[in-house]
Design goal:
alpha+beta, three-stranded antiparallel β-sheet, about 20% strand
Length: about 80
């Protein structure tokens, strides 16, 4: 995900990730995982702020020290 420089600082990234989290919940997903990089400090801050935590690197990222993998457990909505 990328927000163009002139729009950065307006919480657009946070809103986008929040919407993706809600959509995943609606679809019944139990967990979200992602890959980013430690050099992308702003992205890492957004993900951390929204409850993502660092997890072991997975898949093709397992042997990539520049990668940072994160995950978030989801509580699905109960409409009953």
């Amino acid at each position: 995900m990328f927000v163009i420089p002139k729009e950065q600082g307006k919480c657009i990234g946070t809103e986008l990730v929040s919407k993706l989290i809600e959509w995943a919940k609606e679809l019944g997903y139990k967990k979200i995982i992602l890959e980013t990089g430690e050099l992308l400090a702003e992205s890492c801050h957004v993900y951390s702020k929204l409850g993502f935590q660092q997890i072991p690197n997975y898949g093709v990222y397992a042997d990539m020290p520049e990668s940072l993998c994160m995950g978030k457990e989801l509580l699905t909505a109960n409409y009953a």
